TrEMBL record:
<keyword id="KW-1133">Transmembrane helix</keyword>
<dbReference type="Pfam" id="PF07690">
    <property type="entry name" value="MFS_1"/>
</dbReference>
<feature type="transmembrane region" description="Helical">
    <location>
        <begin position="385"/>
        <end position="404"/>
    </location>
</feature>
<feature type="transmembrane region" description="Helical">
    <location>
        <begin position="86"/>
        <end position="105"/>
    </location>
</feature>
<dbReference type="InterPro" id="IPR036259">
    <property type="entry name" value="MFS_trans_sf"/>
</dbReference>
<keyword id="KW-0813">Transport</keyword>
<feature type="transmembrane region" description="Helical">
    <location>
        <begin position="111"/>
        <end position="134"/>
    </location>
</feature>
<feature type="transmembrane region" description="Helical">
    <location>
        <begin position="356"/>
        <end position="376"/>
    </location>
</feature>
<feature type="transmembrane region" description="Helical">
    <location>
        <begin position="146"/>
        <end position="163"/>
    </location>
</feature>
<dbReference type="GO" id="GO:0022857">
    <property type="term" value="F:transmembrane transporter activity"/>
</dbReference>
<keyword id="KW-0472">Membrane</keyword>
<feature type="transmembrane region" description="Helical">
    <location>
        <begin position="175"/>
        <end position="193"/>
    </location>
</feature>
<dbReference type="GO" id="GO:0016020">
    <property type="term" value="C:membrane"/>
</dbReference>
<keyword id="KW-0812">Transmembrane</keyword>
<dbReference type="InterPro" id="IPR011701">
    <property type="entry name" value="MFS"/>
</dbReference>
<feature type="transmembrane region" description="Helical">
    <location>
        <begin position="23"/>
        <end position="46"/>
    </location>
</feature>
<protein>
    <submittedName>
        <fullName>Putative monocarboxylate transporter</fullName>
    </submittedName>
</protein>
Length: 451
Protein backbone atom coordinates (compact mmCIF):
# COMPACT_ATOMS: atom_id res chain seq x y z
CA UNK A 1 0.00 0.00 0.00
CA UNK A 2 1.51 3.30 -1.10
CA UNK A 3 1.41 6.41 1.03
CA UNK A 4 1.72 10.04 0.17
CA UNK A 5 3.94 10.73 -2.80
CA UNK A 6 3.86 7.10 -3.87
CA UNK A 7 6.02 5.96 -0.93
CA UNK A 8 4.87 2.49 0.24
CA UNK A 9 3.85 2.01 3.85
CA UNK A 10 5.92 -1.15 4.27
CA UNK A 11 8.81 -2.89 2.54
CA UNK A 12 12.06 -1.52 1.14
CA UNK A 13 12.39 2.30 0.91
CA UNK A 14 9.05 2.70 2.69
CA UNK A 15 7.76 4.87 5.51
CA UNK A 16 8.31 1.96 7.88
CA UNK A 17 11.95 1.87 6.75
CA UNK A 18 12.50 5.33 8.23
CA UNK A 19 10.68 4.34 11.42
CA UNK A 20 12.94 1.29 11.64
CA UNK A 21 15.98 3.52 11.20
CA UNK A 22 14.72 5.66 14.08
CA UNK A 23 14.36 2.71 16.44
CA UNK A 24 17.75 1.35 15.37
CA UNK A 25 19.20 4.76 16.21
CA UNK A 26 17.64 4.60 19.68
CA UNK A 27 18.99 1.11 20.34
CA UNK A 28 22.44 2.12 19.10
CA UNK A 29 22.28 5.37 21.12
CA UNK A 30 21.61 3.55 24.40
CA UNK A 31 23.73 0.43 23.91
CA UNK A 32 26.86 2.34 22.92
CA UNK A 33 26.80 4.65 25.95
CA UNK A 34 29.73 2.70 27.36
CA UNK A 35 31.94 3.52 24.36
CA UNK A 36 31.64 7.24 25.10
CA UNK A 37 32.50 6.64 28.77
CA UNK A 38 35.73 4.72 28.12
CA UNK A 39 37.98 7.68 28.91
CA UNK A 40 36.30 8.59 32.19
CA UNK A 41 35.98 4.97 33.36
CA UNK A 42 39.58 4.24 32.34
CA UNK A 43 40.74 7.11 34.55
CA UNK A 44 38.46 5.88 37.36
CA UNK A 45 39.75 2.29 37.19
CA UNK A 46 43.33 3.53 37.60
CA UNK A 47 42.37 5.47 40.74
CA UNK A 48 39.98 2.91 42.27
CA UNK A 49 42.02 -0.25 41.80
CA UNK A 50 45.50 1.30 41.88
CA UNK A 51 46.71 -0.39 38.69
CA UNK A 52 48.90 0.70 35.80
CA UNK A 53 47.48 2.19 32.62
CA UNK A 54 48.31 -1.04 30.81
CA UNK A 55 46.25 -3.12 33.26
CA UNK A 56 43.44 -0.56 33.47
CA UNK A 57 43.02 -0.56 29.70
CA UNK A 58 42.30 -4.31 29.51
CA UNK A 59 38.56 -4.29 30.39
CA UNK A 60 37.92 -1.72 27.68
CA UNK A 61 40.25 -3.35 25.18
CA UNK A 62 38.68 -6.78 25.76
CA UNK A 63 35.19 -5.30 25.32
CA UNK A 64 36.34 -3.67 22.11
CA UNK A 65 38.11 -6.81 20.88
CA UNK A 66 35.38 -9.30 21.83
CA UNK A 67 32.72 -7.16 20.16
CA UNK A 68 34.81 -7.55 17.03
CA UNK A 69 35.91 -11.18 17.37
CA UNK A 70 32.37 -12.54 17.75
CA UNK A 71 31.20 -10.50 14.75
CA UNK A 72 31.24 -13.48 12.34
CA UNK A 73 29.18 -15.52 14.82
CA UNK A 74 26.65 -12.72 15.24
CA UNK A 75 26.47 -12.33 11.47
CA UNK A 76 25.76 -16.04 11.09
CA UNK A 77 23.09 -15.92 13.83
CA UNK A 78 21.41 -12.96 12.12
CA UNK A 79 21.23 -14.95 8.88
CA UNK A 80 20.36 -18.28 10.55
CA UNK A 81 17.64 -16.96 12.86
CA UNK A 82 16.89 -13.24 12.48
CA UNK A 83 18.30 -9.85 13.34
CA UNK A 84 15.31 -9.31 15.63
CA UNK A 85 16.15 -12.29 17.85
CA UNK A 86 19.83 -11.39 17.99
CA UNK A 87 18.98 -7.81 18.96
CA UNK A 88 16.53 -8.85 21.69
CA UNK A 89 19.13 -10.98 23.47
CA UNK A 90 22.10 -8.71 22.83
CA UNK A 91 20.45 -5.47 23.91
CA UNK A 92 19.32 -6.98 27.22
CA UNK A 93 22.71 -8.38 28.22
CA UNK A 94 24.49 -5.26 26.96
CA UNK A 95 23.25 -3.36 30.02
CA UNK A 96 23.53 -6.28 32.44
CA UNK A 97 27.23 -6.74 31.63
CA UNK A 98 27.97 -3.15 32.70
CA UNK A 99 25.58 -3.03 35.65
CA UNK A 100 27.13 -5.97 37.54
CA UNK A 101 30.56 -4.27 37.47
CA UNK A 102 29.34 -2.48 40.60
CA UNK A 103 30.42 -5.63 42.47
CA UNK A 104 33.95 -5.67 41.00
CA UNK A 105 36.79 -6.33 43.44
CA UNK A 106 39.57 -6.26 40.88
CA UNK A 107 40.27 -5.64 37.21
CA UNK A 108 39.78 -9.34 36.36
CA UNK A 109 36.08 -9.02 37.28
CA UNK A 110 35.77 -6.05 34.93
CA UNK A 111 37.48 -8.00 32.15
CA UNK A 112 34.92 -10.83 32.43
CA UNK A 113 31.70 -8.82 32.68
CA UNK A 114 32.48 -5.48 31.03
CA UNK A 115 34.94 -7.01 28.59
CA UNK A 116 33.38 -10.35 27.62
CA UNK A 117 29.65 -10.16 28.46
CA UNK A 118 29.16 -6.54 27.44
CA UNK A 119 31.50 -6.93 24.46
CA UNK A 120 29.66 -9.96 23.04
CA UNK A 121 26.31 -8.22 23.48
CA UNK A 122 27.59 -5.06 21.84
CA UNK A 123 28.64 -7.11 18.80
CA UNK A 124 25.12 -8.46 18.34
CA UNK A 125 23.68 -4.95 18.55
CA UNK A 126 26.14 -3.44 16.07
CA UNK A 127 25.69 -6.21 13.50
CA UNK A 128 21.91 -6.36 13.94
CA UNK A 129 21.12 -2.66 13.50
CA UNK A 130 23.51 -2.28 10.56
CA UNK A 131 22.02 -5.23 8.67
CA UNK A 132 18.43 -4.14 9.38
CA UNK A 133 18.98 -0.61 8.06
CA UNK A 134 20.78 -1.92 4.97
CA UNK A 135 17.88 -4.35 4.34
CA UNK A 136 15.28 -1.60 4.63
CA UNK A 137 16.93 0.81 2.18
CA UNK A 138 18.15 0.72 -1.38
CA UNK A 139 18.01 4.24 -2.85
CA UNK A 140 19.08 6.16 0.28
CA UNK A 141 21.18 3.48 1.94
CA UNK A 142 24.20 5.63 2.83
CA UNK A 143 21.97 8.49 4.01
CA UNK A 144 19.98 6.18 6.30
CA UNK A 145 23.13 4.65 7.77
CA UNK A 146 24.61 8.09 8.27
CA UNK A 147 21.49 9.35 10.04
CA UNK A 148 21.40 6.28 12.29
CA UNK A 149 24.99 6.79 13.35
CA UNK A 150 24.43 10.54 13.72
CA UNK A 151 21.57 10.05 16.16
CA UNK A 152 23.56 7.41 18.02
CA UNK A 153 26.65 9.59 18.44
CA UNK A 154 24.66 12.31 20.21
CA UNK A 155 25.18 10.37 23.45
CA UNK A 156 28.72 11.73 23.55
CA UNK A 157 27.29 15.13 24.57
CA UNK A 158 25.73 13.63 27.69
CA UNK A 159 27.69 10.56 28.76
CA UNK A 160 31.23 11.84 29.54
CA UNK A 161 30.17 14.64 31.93
CA UNK A 162 27.41 12.46 33.40
CA UNK A 163 29.71 9.50 34.10
CA UNK A 164 32.37 11.89 35.40
CA UNK A 165 29.75 13.23 37.83
CA UNK A 166 28.85 9.67 38.91
CA UNK A 167 32.53 8.84 39.39
CA UNK A 168 33.54 11.96 41.31
CA UNK A 169 30.38 12.39 43.42
CA UNK A 170 29.78 8.70 44.19
CA UNK A 171 32.47 6.25 43.01
CA UNK A 172 33.68 4.39 39.94
CA UNK A 173 31.64 1.33 40.98
CA UNK A 174 28.43 3.36 41.21
CA UNK A 175 29.27 4.87 37.82
CA UNK A 176 29.24 1.34 36.34
CA UNK A 177 25.92 0.59 38.07
CA UNK A 178 24.11 3.69 36.84
CA UNK A 179 25.61 3.45 33.35
CA UNK A 180 24.36 -0.15 33.03
CA UNK A 181 20.87 0.93 34.11
CA UNK A 182 20.86 3.61 31.42
CA UNK A 183 22.00 1.14 28.75
CA UNK A 184 19.06 -1.16 29.54
CA UNK A 185 16.73 1.54 28.19
CA UNK A 186 17.73 0.45 24.69
CA UNK A 187 16.04 -2.94 25.09
CA UNK A 188 12.42 -1.73 24.50
CA UNK A 189 13.44 -0.35 21.11
CA UNK A 190 14.32 -3.84 19.85
CA UNK A 191 10.75 -5.09 20.37
CA UNK A 192 9.47 -3.39 17.20
CA UNK A 193 12.38 -4.19 14.88
CA UNK A 194 12.17 -6.79 12.10
CA UNK A 195 13.38 -7.34 8.55
CA UNK A 196 11.38 -5.66 5.74
CA UNK A 197 8.31 -7.32 4.26
CA UNK A 198 7.82 -7.78 0.53
CA UNK A 199 6.49 -4.78 -1.34
CA UNK A 200 3.61 -5.09 -3.76
CA UNK A 201 5.87 -4.32 -6.69
CA UNK A 202 8.34 -6.96 -5.62
CA UNK A 203 5.60 -9.56 -5.29
CA UNK A 204 4.38 -8.86 -8.80
CA UNK A 205 7.83 -9.02 -10.38
CA UNK A 206 9.41 -11.99 -8.65
CA UNK A 207 8.19 -14.56 -11.18
CA UNK A 208 7.17 -13.30 -14.58
CA UNK A 209 6.98 -16.65 -16.35
CA UNK A 210 5.65 -20.10 -15.54
CA UNK A 211 7.07 -23.08 -13.74
CA UNK A 212 6.78 -26.15 -15.93
CA UNK A 213 6.78 -28.64 -13.08
CA UNK A 214 5.86 -27.89 -9.48
CA UNK A 215 6.68 -31.35 -8.18
CA UNK A 216 10.42 -30.99 -8.11
CA UNK A 217 10.86 -27.39 -6.99
CA UNK A 218 14.37 -26.97 -5.61
CA UNK A 219 16.12 -29.48 -7.85
CA UNK A 220 18.67 -28.23 -10.39
CA UNK A 221 16.56 -29.54 -13.25
CA UNK A 222 13.50 -27.39 -12.48
CA UNK A 223 12.55 -25.44 -15.60
CA UNK A 224 11.77 -21.77 -15.16
CA UNK A 225 10.94 -20.09 -18.41
CA UNK A 226 11.27 -16.47 -17.31
CA UNK A 227 13.62 -14.36 -15.31
CA UNK A 228 13.57 -14.20 -11.54
CA UNK A 229 14.04 -10.71 -10.15
CA UNK A 230 16.29 -10.87 -7.10
CA UNK A 231 17.05 -7.17 -6.81
CA UNK A 232 13.84 -6.19 -5.05
CA UNK A 233 13.49 -9.26 -2.86
CA UNK A 234 15.93 -12.00 -1.98
CA UNK A 235 13.49 -14.89 -1.44
CA UNK A 236 10.35 -15.74 -3.40
CA UNK A 237 7.67 -18.12 -2.12
CA UNK A 238 5.14 -20.47 -3.67
CA UNK A 239 1.44 -19.86 -3.16
CA UNK A 240 1.39 -21.70 0.18
CA UNK A 241 3.62 -18.93 1.56
CA UNK A 242 6.05 -21.34 3.19
CA UNK A 243 8.06 -23.05 0.47
CA UNK A 244 10.98 -20.88 -0.64
CA UNK A 245 11.83 -20.58 -4.30
CA UNK A 246 15.37 -19.19 -4.30
CA UNK A 247 17.46 -18.72 -7.42
CA UNK A 248 20.40 -21.08 -7.49
CA UNK A 249 22.85 -18.20 -7.86
CA UNK A 250 21.74 -16.74 -4.51
CA UNK A 251 22.38 -20.00 -2.69
CA UNK A 252 25.82 -20.07 -4.21
CA UNK A 253 26.45 -16.55 -2.92
CA UNK A 254 25.62 -17.59 0.66
CA UNK A 255 27.83 -20.68 0.93
CA UNK A 256 30.96 -21.09 3.03
CA UNK A 257 33.21 -21.39 -0.02
CA UNK A 258 31.80 -18.22 -1.57
CA UNK A 259 32.25 -16.37 1.73
CA UNK A 260 35.90 -17.45 1.93
CA UNK A 261 36.45 -16.33 -1.66
CA UNK A 262 34.90 -12.94 -0.84
CA UNK A 263 37.12 -12.54 2.22
CA UNK A 264 40.24 -13.20 0.13
CA UNK A 265 39.55 -10.29 -2.23
CA UNK A 266 41.39 -6.95 -2.15
CA UNK A 267 38.04 -5.14 -1.98
CA UNK A 268 37.27 -6.81 1.34
CA UNK A 269 40.68 -6.18 2.89
CA UNK A 270 40.83 -2.52 1.94
CA UNK A 271 37.44 -2.02 3.60
CA UNK A 272 38.31 -4.21 6.58
CA UNK A 273 41.55 -2.36 7.33
CA UNK A 274 39.86 1.02 6.78
CA UNK A 275 37.01 0.12 9.14
CA UNK A 276 39.50 -1.24 11.68
CA UNK A 277 41.41 2.03 11.65
CA UNK A 278 38.28 4.17 12.05
CA UNK A 279 37.11 2.07 14.98
CA UNK A 280 40.60 1.77 16.52
CA UNK A 281 41.15 5.53 16.33
CA UNK A 282 37.68 6.31 17.69
CA UNK A 283 37.95 4.05 20.74
CA UNK A 284 41.57 5.05 21.37
CA UNK A 285 40.58 8.72 21.49
CA UNK A 286 37.65 8.00 23.80
CA UNK A 287 39.91 5.99 26.11
CA UNK A 288 43.02 8.17 26.36
CA UNK A 289 41.65 11.69 25.81
CA UNK A 290 41.22 12.45 29.52
CA UNK A 291 44.62 10.98 30.38
CA UNK A 292 46.27 12.81 27.47
CA UNK A 293 44.74 16.09 28.61
CA UNK A 294 45.90 15.49 32.19
CA UNK A 295 49.46 15.19 30.85
CA UNK A 296 49.00 18.73 29.51
CA UNK A 297 47.88 19.92 33.01
CA UNK A 298 44.17 19.99 32.07
CA UNK A 299 41.76 18.73 34.75
CA UNK A 300 39.31 15.86 34.00
CA UNK A 301 36.34 18.18 34.57
CA UNK A 302 37.54 20.32 31.64
CA UNK A 303 38.91 17.55 29.45
CA UNK A 304 35.45 15.99 29.04
CA UNK A 305 34.69 18.90 26.69
CA UNK A 306 37.07 17.25 24.22
CA UNK A 307 34.32 14.69 23.68
CA UNK A 308 31.82 17.48 22.96
CA UNK A 309 33.87 19.03 20.17
CA UNK A 310 34.66 15.59 18.78
CA UNK A 311 30.96 14.75 18.71
CA UNK A 312 30.01 18.01 16.99
CA UNK A 313 32.33 17.22 14.09
CA UNK A 314 31.41 13.54 14.15
CA UNK A 315 27.66 14.16 13.96
CA UNK A 316 28.00 16.78 11.24
CA UNK A 317 29.90 14.59 8.79
CA UNK A 318 28.01 11.38 9.61
CA UNK A 319 24.91 13.04 8.23
CA UNK A 320 26.53 14.84 5.31
CA UNK A 321 28.81 12.06 4.01
CA UNK A 322 25.95 9.64 3.38
CA UNK A 323 23.87 12.32 1.64
CA UNK A 324 26.84 13.45 -0.46
CA UNK A 325 27.58 9.88 -1.61
CA UNK A 326 23.93 8.99 -2.31
CA UNK A 327 23.39 12.22 -4.24
CA UNK A 328 26.50 11.68 -6.36
CA UNK A 329 28.28 14.88 -5.36
CA UNK A 330 31.38 12.92 -4.33
CA UNK A 331 32.41 9.32 -4.84
CA UNK A 332 32.67 7.08 -1.80
CA UNK A 333 36.39 6.64 -2.48
CA UNK A 334 36.94 10.41 -2.47
CA UNK A 335 35.28 10.79 0.93
CA UNK A 336 37.45 7.98 2.31
CA UNK A 337 40.65 9.61 1.03
CA UNK A 338 39.77 12.99 2.52
CA UNK A 339 38.75 11.43 5.83
CA UNK A 340 41.97 9.41 6.16
CA UNK A 341 44.14 12.40 5.27
CA UNK A 342 42.58 14.80 7.78
CA UNK A 343 42.54 12.10 10.47
CA UNK A 344 46.31 11.86 10.10
CA UNK A 345 46.64 15.64 10.25
CA UNK A 346 44.54 15.73 13.44
CA UNK A 347 46.62 13.10 15.25
CA UNK A 348 49.87 14.81 14.32
CA UNK A 349 48.48 18.14 15.52
CA UNK A 350 47.69 16.59 18.91
CA UNK A 351 51.42 16.02 19.41
CA UNK A 352 51.98 19.78 19.30
CA UNK A 353 48.80 20.81 21.17
CA UNK A 354 49.51 21.90 24.75
CA UNK A 355 46.51 24.10 25.60
CA UNK A 356 42.84 23.23 25.98
CA UNK A 357 41.81 25.30 22.94
CA UNK A 358 44.30 23.54 20.66
CA UNK A 359 43.22 20.10 21.90
CA UNK A 360 39.60 21.11 21.29
CA UNK A 361 40.49 22.06 17.69
CA UNK A 362 42.21 18.70 17.18
CA UNK A 363 39.21 16.90 18.66
CA UNK A 364 36.89 18.71 16.25
CA UNK A 365 39.01 17.69 13.25
CA UNK A 366 39.16 14.11 14.53
CA UNK A 367 35.37 14.09 14.80
CA UNK A 368 34.92 15.45 11.29
CA UNK A 369 37.25 12.87 9.75
CA UNK A 370 35.84 9.96 11.78
CA UNK A 371 32.19 10.72 11.07
CA UNK A 372 32.79 11.04 7.34
CA UNK A 373 33.91 7.38 7.10
CA UNK A 374 32.14 5.54 9.93
CA UNK A 375 29.47 3.86 7.78
CA UNK A 376 31.05 3.92 4.32
CA UNK A 377 32.94 0.63 4.60
CA UNK A 378 29.63 -1.16 5.18
CA UNK A 379 28.12 0.55 2.14
CA UNK A 380 31.12 -0.45 0.04
CA UNK A 381 30.74 -4.08 1.18
CA UNK A 382 27.15 -4.07 -0.11
CA UNK A 383 28.34 -2.51 -3.36
CA UNK A 384 30.83 -5.32 -3.97
CA UNK A 385 29.22 -8.37 -2.32
CA UNK A 386 25.46 -7.69 -2.07
CA UNK A 387 22.93 -7.48 0.78
CA UNK A 388 22.56 -11.24 1.28
CA UNK A 389 26.25 -11.67 2.05
CA UNK A 390 26.38 -8.62 4.34
CA UNK A 391 25.76 -10.21 7.80
CA UNK A 392 28.73 -12.57 7.58
CA UNK A 393 30.94 -10.16 5.62
CA UNK A 394 30.25 -7.38 8.12
CA UNK A 395 30.92 -9.76 10.99
CA UNK A 396 34.21 -10.83 9.42
CA UNK A 397 35.18 -7.20 8.94
CA UNK A 398 34.60 -6.51 12.64
CA UNK A 399 36.72 -9.58 13.45
CA UNK A 400 39.62 -7.98 11.62
CA UNK A 401 39.00 -4.81 13.63
CA UNK A 402 39.29 -6.91 16.79
CA UNK A 403 42.76 -8.08 15.80
CA UNK A 404 43.85 -4.45 15.49
CA UNK A 405 42.27 -3.71 18.88
CA UNK A 406 44.61 -6.11 20.68
CA UNK A 407 47.52 -3.85 19.75
CA UNK A 408 46.19 -0.99 21.90
CA UNK A 409 47.20 -2.10 25.46
CA UNK A 410 50.88 -2.78 24.67
CA UNK A 411 51.09 0.45 22.65
CA UNK A 412 49.47 2.50 25.43
CA UNK A 413 51.61 0.80 28.06
CA UNK A 414 54.85 1.19 26.10
CA UNK A 415 54.50 4.81 25.08
CA UNK A 416 52.76 6.25 28.18
CA UNK A 417 53.98 4.05 31.05
CA UNK A 418 57.49 3.33 29.76
CA UNK A 419 58.37 6.39 27.66
CA UNK A 420 56.11 8.77 29.57
CA UNK A 421 54.30 10.28 26.57
CA UNK A 422 51.59 9.46 24.02
CA UNK A 423 53.49 11.28 21.25
CA UNK A 424 55.03 8.16 19.69
CA UNK A 425 51.61 6.49 19.63
CA UNK A 426 50.14 9.54 17.89
CA UNK A 427 52.92 9.42 15.28
CA UNK A 428 51.97 5.80 14.48
CA UNK A 429 48.29 6.73 14.10
CA UNK A 430 49.27 9.57 11.77
CA UNK A 431 51.39 7.32 9.56
CA UNK A 432 48.76 4.57 9.24
CA UNK A 433 46.02 7.02 8.26
CA UNK A 434 48.15 8.71 5.61
CA UNK A 435 49.15 5.31 4.23
CA UNK A 436 45.53 4.22 3.86
CA UNK A 437 44.69 7.56 2.24
CA UNK A 438 47.27 6.67 -0.42
CA UNK A 439 45.76 3.18 -0.83
CA UNK A 440 42.26 4.59 -1.37
CA UNK A 441 43.68 7.10 -3.87
CA UNK A 442 45.19 4.26 -5.92
CA UNK A 443 41.94 2.30 -5.65
CA UNK A 444 39.99 5.32 -6.88
CA UNK A 445 42.10 5.70 -10.03
CA UNK A 446 42.03 1.95 -10.73
CA UNK A 447 38.22 1.93 -10.63
CA UNK A 448 38.03 5.03 -12.80
CA UNK A 449 40.33 3.33 -15.30
CA UNK A 450 38.04 0.28 -15.46
CA UNK A 451 35.07 2.54 -16.15
Amino acid sequence: MAGAGGVPAFGIDSRWSWITMGFCSWVLFMDTLSLKAFGTLFYGVIETFGVSRNDASWPFTVADAVSSFVGPLCGYLCRRFSCRKVLLVSSFFCGIGVLVCYFAKDVAFLVVFFGVVHGCSLAGVLIGVNVLVIQHFEKRRATACGLMYTAACLNAFVVPPLVEFFRSYYSTRVAFLLLGALILNGFPGTLVLHSPTKTANAEESVVSGTIQSSDNIGSPETSITSELSVESISVAYLKDGNTPLVPRTEYEGLGFKATVNNVLTCDFWVNAISYSMVYFDLVTFMMVAVDLASDRKITPSLSVFLFHTFTIGDCLTRTLSGFVVDSGYLRLQTVMVLGMFFQGVAFQSMVWATELWSLLACSLLLGLSTGSRICLSTIDLVRHFGVEALPVMLGTMTFVAGVFTMLRPPLVGYFRDLLGSYNGFLHILTATNLTMAAVWTVRYFLERRKE
